[in-house]
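Thread: Newbie trying to understand structure tokens

Hi all, I'm a second-year student working on a class project, and my supervisor (Dr. K.) asked me to get a predicted structure for one chain before our next meeting. I've only ever worked with sequences, so writing a 3D structure as a token string is new to me. If someone could post the tokens and maybe explain what I'm looking at, I'd be very grateful. Here's the chain:
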Amino acid sequence: MRVALFNKSIASAFLLSLLFFCSCEGPVDRTKVKDSFNKEDSILNASESESNLEKSSESSIKEYSGVDFYLENSGSMDGYVADKTEFPDHLKNVLYAIDNGEMNLYYANKLILKINKTPKDFFAELNPTSFKKEGGNRASTDIAELLDSILSRHNKKNITVIASDFIFSPGKDKDAENYLKDQRIEVKRVTNRVLKKHKNISIMVYRFISSFNGNYYNKIDSKSYITHSRPFFIWIIGDKEYLRDVKRKFEKENIDFKNSTYFSLEDENNIEWRVIAGKNMRITPGNKHSIENLEKDPHTNLCKFKIEAKLPLLLDESYILDTSNYICDKGYTVSKVSKVDEDIYRIDIQSPKAYKKITSVSLKNNTPSWVSTYNDTDGDDITQTYDKTYGLEYLLGGVKDAFDQDNYAIFKIQIK
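---
Reply by user tm_fold:
Sure, no problem. This is what the structure looks like when written as tokens:
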């Protein structure tokens, strides 16, 4: 957005003279003149009641060529495909939402097994018997090895989709804590390798809930039969622009996931944003990132201002709205974040006094709080952790370590 450098009276005089000139040459389109006044008024008086940032266009989103879907079919997954669970419906909803005409189906355990069926036939036969029939080593799955075998096959023109419970299985003879630490390192290594091969790759992780009727295997592979709701995950991997398309399709189809997180390498300084005009300050002419004469609000005794930012990120909206995910230079705090449009947000900033300096506000790359909430630290008694996943923090921590980015966005405001 260009900031107008002339004031409203000059703009009015110019338009009136134009009106006089045009009236001498022929008939005047008074609607166009009125629209010119309205547009100039909008630019000069843009405030918190309206936005001058343009939301992302759907036509600008790149579409992927196909979908490569991998379903883990180890023994621990049998309970999700037993009778009367929501798991198959969740998969159908996801795959049908993102299907663009070319879909490749695979079972995954220690082997990758091609499923030579249409999606319709695949779902019609999705049960523990078909899991066993398809073969492979179903005894246990090394999560890092599973990711490695799938991600090494990633086609940059497609999106890769993985469905699994993503539970680590150290086994009886291993130190569980050391095993989890080693797995985190291996997950980081695997993710680093795909990042080097595919520079613009991103990963979205969705957490779903389904009823589960089958054997649950704890960290030492001791099994117990349970009939209860359990979490599972769907990972979607691909070019960042492809995943923007996926996210919009999820929103359009109201995909019923419970939580999500996102991993990507963002240019933290390449964000479109501006300061919003307010009562107790003014925007520096010609600089939408600078404010002057910042004074205290007489009602709150605080200095306040707002910025508006276009965040075309794949982050969950709740993450962007959470003020704890922002950090400011000393003296300033983010008091509120609100959504204006599809990818446009307003950030309220306040301080006890006006600190005249360049101050930075950062949207941090924090691990979402739900990851800790639903992380099973014990991996033993499932009756106490039905809604949790053993080793979840280590799994997602390994991915985050590979992307290694502190901030999603940084806003630097000059306060004079």
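A couple of things are worth pointing out once you decode it. The first strand starts at residue 67 and ends at 72. The chain has eleven helices and 19 strands. Feel free to ask follow-ups in this thread.
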